[in-house]
Amino acid sequence: MKTHVRSDWRGAILVCRKCGKKAGGGFGPKGKTSLTKALRKEMHGGKGRKARLGVVEVGCLGVCPKHAVTVVDASRPGEWLIVPAGTPVEEVAARLDAATPTAARPGSAAADGARQPPV
Question: Where is region (Disordered) located (predicted)?
C-alpha cells in the first residue's frame, strides 16, 4: 500500500463549500458559476493533483457570512478572505495572487523550476 502520493501543487486555495452553496453561485460571466470553478479557471489551477495550484472546497469554516464565500490561501492561513457574491473573479484572483509567494504563482520562473539567485 502507498504511504504518500506526489502532487504538483505549488499552493492551495480553500473555499468553504457551505458558503458557496448558500451564495448559489454568483460568480463568473453570467453569475451562475461557483467560486471554486471560477477560481480554477481564472488562476489556471486545473483539477486534481497534477494541477499547479489546488483550489479545494472544504467543509464549513465557521464564519458563515451572508451572501459571501469564505476563502483561505493555505500559504497565508492567518488571513481569510470574505468574498461577496458578484465580485469579479479577476479581482479575487488578484487578491489571492498578491498574497501568494512568488514561488507558488503559476507561470512564475520559480514555479517552473528555474533556479533563483540567492538574496
Answer: 100-119
* Residue 109 placed within a domain: no
And the C-alpha cell for 118?
540567492
Q: Is 11 helix (H, G, I), strand (E, B) or coil?
A: coil
Q: Which domain holds residue 31?
A: 11-99
3 state DSSP class of 90 = helix
Report if residue 85 sits inside a domain.
yes
* Nearest C-alpha neighbor of 93 from the set 31, 44, 25, 32: 44
The string of pLDDT tens digits covering residues 72-115 is 999 999 999 999 999 999 999 999 887 555 545 555 555 555 54
Q: Which residues of 35-49 are buried (b: 16+ CB within 10 A; e: fewer)?
A: bbbbbbebbebbeee
